[in-house]
Amino acid sequence: MKSQKALDSLNMFVGDVIGGIGPYLAAYLRCQRHWDQTAIGAALSAMGIAAIVAQAPAGALIDNTRHKRLILFVAISVMAIAAVSVVYMQSFAAVMVAQVMYGVGAAVAAPAIVAVSLGIVGHACFADRIARNEAFNHFGNVLAALIAGVLGARISPDYVFYTVGAFAVGSLISVLFIANRDIDHDIARGAAASDDESGHAHLPIKTLVLFGLSVVLFHFANAALLPLAGQYLSEGSPKDAPFYISVCIIMAQLVMIPVAVLVGRLSHRFGSKSILLVGFAVLVARAFWFTMGNAPAIIISGQVLDGIGAGIIGVLSSVVVADLTRGSGHFNAVRGCVIAAQGVGAAASNVVAGALVQRYGYNAGFMTLGAIAAVGLMVCWLGLPKMKGAQTR
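The structure corresponding to this sequence follows.
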């Protein structure tokens, strides 16, 4: 189907647009603009806070509109303008405004893609479609990182942001090739189709809360691991640390590509809950693996585990929400609340882990994050119903 191929292309391009600016912005503002750490932190926080606050309203908007392609087009355009404008904006206030725009655009674009995907393929094929989205997304991230790295090093750091703009243009062209007639807007918001009486008449609030809590715990445990590992690595290999950190990022993305494809298939055979538990278990193992030392081989191999654990959660979090909200018509609003909650968990992760490491050392930080991941595993195991494929049994 033409629209599904356009979705492949869109996910390949848009991954860098949604998540591409953050890792580079701090270094750019520090080295090119000579901002102090407080100002840089404020700029990064502005983007993150805007994205968190906008998640639930964005989901509700997407649930209640049949103009999803238009919303997606506008959101990507806003992010492209915000990214490229960083090169030309000099004042603190202007950069802050750009980062807020970027955060809001990302909060709208990501769920819009998920909703369009559900509307095109329906619940039965949703796990496979999300898995395909994630695989193309990770491939695009690797490609963009390589292009931005080469252009930024060989020509100018400005080209990192131009790369985001170029990938945004590719995303916009892809959106134009998605046919509106291929999108069932009722299914896209989680409402049952006219011939589908399955699903929940009402939202299973308790189960959704427990799932949301487990996802928050996952991101709380996961978000600080790579930054802490990078700092730990830099103490042992200060000169080569930037290279090794880049290898870590690319390694995780490369692993996530086959993992995403496999998760879509395995969830039909073993059930979404079983695969989620594997993702949590891998995160626990990764946290304790980092206590083995700060040699580059240990840190990089730990990122293989990140590719597995985060790859599983990246696919199945949307699939589980779609299953639990099926028939309610509130899929995107609920998913927005879950994403916002996990954003809060990720933000708190760096603060808490940083304080632990400063006072008790790296191993205490890694072990604490591993214990939190274990709690998330227990919540997922005890709190979620048994699921087979995309449907609860």
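Residues 194-199 have pLDDT under 50 and may be disordered.
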